[in-house]
Amino acid sequence: MAAPETPGYVVGAVTTRLTVTVPHGIVGGELVRVAAPDGSYHSIMVPAGLTAGQQFSVELLAGSNAVDIAKLKMELDAERALRRETQQEALRCRTALEEVQQKRMADHAFFRDMIKRQRRSIEHLGQQVET
């Protein structure tokens, strides 16, 4: 009987770490069937180079029920919504900053022009006083 396939990785899923002892007659690269604490069975490939009696660690997804899955889904949806809102706020801030920078450049150009005019006026007045 084949072990039931577990779904892909689930963000926020709880995992169980098991220490597996390689059984007699099994070597690296072969499959060994292990029982998880929740009673489920998993086929695990023994890492290359290991022989009978040696140990290795494996991490398995802990058994999940419908409530756990629904909770994880809800957390993932909330995380996505928060990310969307954060990206939208960042875009608004970036747009506002660009507008402020454009206004600053326009103000800077205006003040430079005003200073030039004032200098010309002062020079003109200075010439009138001399004459």
Automatic annotation (TrEMBL):
User: Any idea which UniProt keywords this protein has?
Assistant: Coiled coil
The coiled-coil regions, if any, are 69-103
Q: Could you name the domain of life of the organism this protein comes from? A: Eukaryota
Q: What is this protein called?
A: Uncharacterized protein
Question: What is the organism field in this record?
Answer: Prymnesium parvum
